[in-house]
Amino acid sequence: MAARITIRTREMRRRNLEMFGNRCLKCPSDRNLEFHHQFETEIKGRGRGSYHRMKDVMLHPLSYVLLCRSCHKKEHPGIFPVSVVDQVDDMEEEFLRNHPEVLL
After folding, report:
1. In-domain check, residue 2
2. Who's near 54: CB < 8 A, 6+ residues apart?
3. For a 10 Å CB count at each end of the chain, is N or C smaller?
4. Pairing relation of β-strands 64-68 and 33-37?
């Protein structure tokens, strides 16, 4: 079953992005932002948009940095090829631009 991003998760992500300044730490980008582990926490692997990931960012903010997708891929060469996940992220971003009421 595909994971569903809830309004609660979106709101938590929005707050986390604000906490980290809504910009990539390594470049001036404010698009396609992802939370990168600096230190290990209980959360492993993918799932950067999941409720558990967003909760972990809130509980352990010093364990993460905010990077754009391009800079994040440079941190993990060969691990994050362009994939269906990137395409889904792009579609979700476009949907949210066209339907901002979802974030209210």
Report:
1. no
2. 9, 12, 13, 16
3. N
4. antiparallel
pTM of the model: 0.66
- CA–CA dist 19, 58 (Å, integer): 9
Task: Supply the Cα-derived Rg of the chain in whole angstroms.
Answer: 13
Rounded-to-integer distance, Cα 5 and Cα 88, Å = 12
Task: Return the amino acid letter for 55.
Answer: K
Give me the number of domains the chain comprises.
Answer: 1
Nearby residues of 94 by Cβ (< 8 Å), 6 or more positions away: none
Alpha-carbon distance of 25 to 63, in angstroms, equals: 14
Q: Is 1 among the domain residues?
A: no
Q: Using pLDDT thresholds of 50, 70 and 90, give the confidence band for residue 101.
A: low
Residue with tokens 């300044």: 21
Q: Structural domain of residue 69, as residue ranges?
A: 7-103
pLDDT tens digits along 20-40:
999 999 999 999 999 888 877
